[in-house]
Design goal:
With 336 residues, the protein is mainly beta. The protein folds into 2 domains: 4-19 and 190-335, Sandwich (Immunoglobulin-like), CATH 2.60.40.2550; 32-177, Sandwich (Immunoglobulin-like). Helix content is 13%, strand content 44%. The protein has 4 helices and 21 strands. The strands form 4 sheets. Strands 1, 10, 11, 12, 13, 15 and 19 form a 7-stranded antiparallel beta sheet that branches. Strands 14, 16, 17, 18, 20 and 21 form a 6-stranded mixed beta sheet that branches. Strands 2, 3, 4 and 7 form a 4-stranded antiparallel beta sheet that branches. A hairpin with a 2-residue loop joins strand 12 and strand 13 (218-222).
Length: 336
């Protein structure tokens, strides 16, 4: 089985995830036009209404797929893929609010502070001509379970007829953010990439909010589904957190990848790659485990895979921590 190790790409991911995360929170308030301010008030009211028990508008429906990565602050970086159904063909406004349902609002506070809220104005060109589109966005939050609300509203022209009614929708979903700061061996979400784009320049602050899967000078676009052709490659990327340290002060990890083919109600071992090691012998001398997680990932051509369903098992052994083992599975399908 021909294997290309994806370490170079993942190292870029490791070094720059904090940079990408830093672009999203703490933005300086932008000057908004009167129409934009009205749009903001409308999408905020949509979410307020749903939170108060009003039925959500359903002209537009959405689903959210979150990914989780550790940052250098005590909040997890959560890039997500938002699938928008019956998307408008015009400009749109989108509002993201992350709510801790266990929190008790301060009745004396003039404004309710949420773990995250953000507004996005989306040009029609970004929505394209299809009724179903995917958008990449991001939020950050500490470990815990949250209600995530997303309001999506068609923007009407300033001189639209008074009886014109814009398409609208509100998504309410629950997201549990893992705790990467408890010292336990863990990994980020394993990102299965559809493609890796090389950039000629880093994104601006506004672009980083809209392209959260840019790491350094590379953009890792998540696969839209887990169905691949034999001519495709399976590329996965992840980070390992909280590994033990050996006498040299470096991690000592063994990363193994095994493929199993589903047959009937069971499965059969198919193949495996050569194990990867991440230790003092091959990590950069300047690698600081207090700042950076250990990268992992492989790219595997699927030409030798017969059609069918497979399970890729990723096994991580922490040799510097009593050979503690962490195992994760990825299920995918190969078609001709």
């Amino acid at each position: 089985m021909a294997i290309r190790r994806a370490m170079a790409v993942v190292v870029a991911l490791v070094v720059s995830v904090t940079f990408a995360a830093a672009q999203a929170p703490g933005q300086k308030p932008q000057k908004r036009s009167k129409q934009e301010q009205q749009e903001i008030e409308q999408v905020v009211k949509l979410v307020d209404g749903v939170m108060a028990g009003q039925p959500a508008p359903t002209d537009i429906t959405m689903t959210l797929e979150p990914f989780f990565m550790k940052s250098q602050e005590q909040r997890t970086f959560v890039p997500f893929v938002l699938t928008v159904n019956n998307a408008p063909k015009t400009d749109a406004a989108m509002y993201v609010r992350v709510v801790n349902p266990a929190a008790t609002p301060d009745p004396k506070a003039k404004k309710v502070e949420y773990p995250w809220d953000d507004i996005h104005f989306i040009p029609a060109a970004a929505l394209g001509s299809e009724s179903r589109v995917k958008l990449n966005r991001v939020f950050m939050a500490t470990a815990g379970t949250y209600d995530v609300y997303i309001a999506f509203k068609e923007r009407l022209p300033e001189k639209a007829p008074k009886n014109a009614v814009p398409k609208m929708g509100v998504l309410k979903t629950q997201v549990t953010v893992p705790d990467f700061y408890n010292g336990e061996l863990a990994t980020s979400t394993i990102l299965v990439a559809d493609k890796v784009n090389m950039l000629s320049a880093p994104p601006s602050q506004d672009e980083a909010r809209e392209r959260p899967f840019v790491f350094g000078m590379q953009e890792l676009l998540p696969a839209p589904d887990m169905e691949f052709k034999k001519a495709d490659e399976l590329s996965i990327f992840f980070q390992v957190y909280n590994s033990g340290l050996d006498a040299s002060g470096k991690p000592n990890l063994l990363l193994e990848y095994e493929f199993h083919k589903v047959e009937g109600t069971g499965e059969k071992f198919f193949n495996k790659t050569n194990p990867q090691t991440a230790n003092a012998a091959n990590l950069p001398p300047q690698f600081d485990p207090a700042k950076f997680p250990v990268p992992g990932g492989i790219t595997v051509p699927l030409a030798s895979f017969a059609e069918g369903s497979y399970r890729l098992n990723v096994k991580i052994t922490d040799k510097a921590n009593n050979n503690k083992v962490l195992s994760q599975d990825i299920k995918f399908t190969v078609k001709g």
